[in-house]
Fold these 4 entries.
Entry 1:
Amino acid sequence: MVRGINKTDIFSDDQDRTRFLERLGVTMTEGQCTVYAWVLMSNHIHILFKSGKYGISSVMRKLLSWYAQYYNRRHKRTGHLFENRYKSIICDEDNYLLALVRYIHLNPVRAGIVKTIEELNIYPWCGHRTIVGNATCPWMDAEYVLAQFGSTSQKNIQPYYAFMLEGVGQGRIKELTGGGLLRSQGGWSQVQSMQRRGQKEDFDERILGGRDFVHAIMKEAGGNQLRQVKAKELGKTIHEIIEEECKKQGISVIELQTGGKRRAVSDTRARIAVRGRVELGLTAAAIARHVGVNTSAVTRAIERMERGNDNR
């Protein structure tokens, strides 16, 4: 997932979208990656893919750097195009592949860009059109998606089509968009159940999968960033923490999220950052997306708060 800086548009017209897709295809092919779903929105992009020989970082750096340079040249602008670094989430394929394919491909429907699945069938800026056989996209593995429904033929898409229809009207799905334990446990109902039992659980907001999957991924990564939180700390989202702290300090959420630099705003941002890390296990990058500053500013704010606590 990647967004335009300050949520501004990253595509001005269809030529921009076409060039981005051309480069996406080249980059994914060179990186030996497999794409299962994608969508281009006005100010953000979602891509679901399996990383290949060179990993995610190399592929995304090449793709986004090329496009930012192209866009700035064409539109005679300077500066950053994208907001911070792209956000990547490791997904448990067995349990979440199809849910993510559907969720990503229904973005234009949820946004009101297209009204129906029939319109989505021919919508050019989404991978759904390829899966149903109305477009050719050699760098996208539509057959693998269809194989999950018992067929690799685009002539037999009915099960996939029915699955997509079931998703219309679902709206935002917390377990696919939330962070921390909410994501790792697969939904708010599971988190509430854990709260009632007073359980602790391992989680990481960069992983979409259950406990065993989280354990396996973090063990492979060295395990040094796996977090545990108590159930009593799981009752709030980052948005609720932001509203609570802003109300407490008498500042507006808008001023906070648009980079306000007043001392009261900076102090509030630091308190939110600490709570986001301690209570929700969020990374500095995840917190930065909500509080109007970059990742390094969040890191400095947390360090400043921790030094202050140590001095006390």
Entry 2:
Amino acid sequence: MKTSKKIVALICALALAAFMPMLAGCGGGSSSSGNESTSGTGSTETTDAGKATDGKVYVIATDTTFAPFEFTDASGNLVGIDIEILDAIAKDQGFEYTINSVGFDAALQAVTSGQADGVIAGMSITDARKEIFDFSAPYFDSGVVMGIAASNQDIKGYEDLAGKKVAVKMGTEGQAFAEGIMAEYGFETVAFEDSAMMYEDVMAGNTVALFEDYPVLGYAISQGVELKMVTDMERGSSYGFAVAKGMNPELLAAFDAGLVNIKADGTYQEILDKYIKK
């Protein structure tokens, strides 16, 4: 697939970076070169669950290009809803952490292989994933929407996808939704590793549409990506923080306790309002 320099520059400007650094080991090791390392220190009263994590350092894996949940800003800092929620909870519960930004599939593999203690990456809570991971309480309710190139006047709904190719991001709710309706509407899917590549493919006309989480696509469009939504949001699964099944129960309990606290003191809503404009 040929890549348009103009499109690549646009995607980079939106901080949907595709860099995948090396995974770091668990137990508080330092990040590999290129990873964004962030640590939280306890600054508020912790709950009983939080005391079990007091002073501990965890390796948390995340995606690379899932704005507004995690992405690299113009200054090279890893930012986003997930990153700020994790930081606020770490401060509330008294633990520290190192972030490994490695891509969605790699983040899940890092946790299941023991190379990371937990994952926060706009990860939908599904029955299939519950067989492999233990999830926190939901921290965000999302859904899937279909997007097309801003200049496309032909695709108005699912019925217009017959005989065409549709872009999806591997391992996401959007991919699961698209594959669930593809037989009914007669289209085929093309899978991509990150949102940036998926957006580019649709804007280039290689695929006619994409399925993406509503807040992610909405943020990209607000930042100038030349796409548009053409369907209402399909209610999807909620996002959760996760650890490998049966592992790090104290970290999971601390996340849940901290989430309750940052919702109660208004921090949670402030984070959402910063990244999702209504």
Entry 3:
Amino acid sequence: MNRSFVILSVLTFIVFTSVSCSHYRRFQEVRRFAAPEARQGIAVGARYVYVVGTQQIGKYDKQTVERTAWWEDEEDGPIIHLDSGVVVDGKLYCARSNYPGLPMTSSVEIWDAATLKHVGRHRFGVRCGSCTWVDRHDGYWWAVFAQYDRWKHATGKGTELTTLVKFDGQWNELQAWIFPKEVVERIIPMGNSGGSWGPDGYLYCTGHDRSEVYVIKMPDRGSVLELVETVPLPILGQGIARDRSRPGFIYGIRRKDGQVVVSRLK
């Protein structure tokens, strides 16, 4: 083999590796605090964090981590299973499903963010699956409806049909996408548990139990989302929320520890 070719190949590999590594990102934990509600998801406002349990929500001051408000449904109440949400214009919007019930039904439940008084809902009924998160981005509502391999024998639909749906301001469906194979293989047998749009225009998604976040971009054509990169995140899946008041910061939970984890993109 030509010696010059070998040297050129090695140099090309070194340059390519260096460039690739320079784009590698990770989330570094900067803080964590105890929150017994930390079971399903989370939402973040400018001053407060809303920690979401299956039928509970705790409102915490960002600085002091003191719980300042609390909401809880009755054990046999209509709000069966809450997940992640978002704070928009003084209201807290959270995804709700009847998980693990079949057929799957979903809604978005709404609270006054100041008082945690329940003030309304939007019902999806029986749609694409279990609504696991909701977000507001670029003037639209976004929500994911999960399907699960663990119930494929009953529904005929598996994790590969977990669907991201884009809605207008009145919750009329505009477009829908499924997740790429690389992500589906990481979240089976569950679905996409958390999602939050970043300031970079990418969608950050999590599975049910892995310590990582999937950075997703919208495809130029077609209905399959595109994976940009998988970034380590010191949580254990479940819901996440980007802090819009501090770009680069993301909140998540560790349900087995009952903790909220705050991380910063490095």
Entry 4:
Amino acid sequence: MKEYTAAVVREGLGFGEGPRWHEGRLWYSDFYRHGIYSMASDGSDEVLELEVVTQPSGLGWLPDGDLLCVSMTDQKVLRFHGDQVSTFADVSEHSVFWANEMIVSPSGYSYVGSFGFDLDARLAELGVERFIAEPPPSTNLVVLDPDGAIVQVVPDMAFPNGTVITPDGTTLIIGETFGSKLTAFNVAANGTLANRRVWAPLERAVSDGMCLDAEGQIWFANALTHQCVRVREGGAITGTVNCSQRAFACMLGGEGRSTLYVMTGSSSDRFEIAAKTLGRIESVRVDVAGAGTP
């Protein structure tokens, strides 16, 4: 197992989420600065690309270049065409509490998850020990076609969070944060999912945002710790990245897609951090380049 240590390349975020490497820059949402940002590979030249007055999360691009973004609190997916913004899809009927993570496939199908419950309120009510002992409610994964129509609703997901699609487009792997596993599906030509199975069981880890590398292994942020973890199918851990604070999402980008960027923060509790700018972006060069989507 190889161990790396990340360095801080940018500070002053509220809560960074949904990192994506796109057209030579790292793009990301910031919950509490209410926008979609991008930066150069070294952390410089941060640009507010688009304002999102609600709370932005998952990002992805349609084949025509339009950007999609999850609007968490009103449970919608927004579409940005130049300066024009419209509602691409309303997933509120199938989202339990806030909408959250999303991935958009190269063919234009979108996969949108939700919390399933009010995470911060439940933790405050139960405390950590009872929270862990009592499995929280499940939710759905919503599949949208390239026009924004709902084509499938996958039930019984334990906080779907962090998603990758293999380079050949045939397999989607998603983290179930409170299910202690990464779950795989076969992807049909019409974007729908089948053959649900455990890709990797996780012990003592709470998976958050993640990305795929060229050896078919996954880097995921372990949201309980200051680490990202590299895991192969079956669950064997092959690498770790140590960060300065808790890790919540990661993305392979930079030159040759061999830099792992990590969105970190002191907490994910909105009652604690919504008015602060303690979020960071940290990075480290790793041995295996990124692959697949995002």
